[in-house]
Design goal:
It contains three helices and no strands. The protein has helices at 2-18, 36-61, 64-125. The chain crosses the membrane at residues 102-124.
């Protein structure tokens, strides 16, 4: 029996020695300790875990930024002809707008000159008599 007590006491002593001190972290996943160093170590451990998971995902599925770059290049390649035709269309519309503005300006100037000429004629009409004798 003495050996049982001795071995049980030895086992308890070993468990007490292996147990974490009060206020410290037993494992990185157990929680936050009381010290600033424990907290820093905990945070860095979690960040390293996240980094490892992201690396695994990148190896499994590929990097998202590389996929987005590929998609962007594909979209640019497909929309380039549309962009060129839009530029040509904009140039034609611009020429048409310029033509319309010139035509409007000519009509307005012609109407103003005709109105001015008619006004002058009406002013002097009563003073001038034209007869075919």
């Amino acid at each position: 029996m003495a050996t049982r007590r001795t071995s049980a006491a030895a086992a308890r002593a070993a468990d007490d020695a292996a147990a974490p001190a009060a206020g410290s972290v037993a494992t990185p996943d157990a929680g936050i300790g009381t010290g600033k160093a424990d907290f820093t170590e905990f945070v860095w451990g979690k960040l390293n875990d996240i980094d490892g998971h992201l690396k695994d995902l990148a190896e499994k599925y590929g990097r998202l930024d590389e996929k987005l770059t590929g998609v962007s290049a594909s979209v640019d390649a497909k929309t380039a002809p549309i962009q060129k035709s839009m530029e040509k269309l904009e140039a034609k519309v611009s020429k048409l707008e310029t033509t319309i503005r010139w035509a409007t300006a000519i009509v307005v100037v012609t109407a103003a000159l005709a109105s001015g000429g008619l006004t002058i004629y009406k002013m002097i009409e009563s003073h001038v008599s034209v007869s075919w004798h």
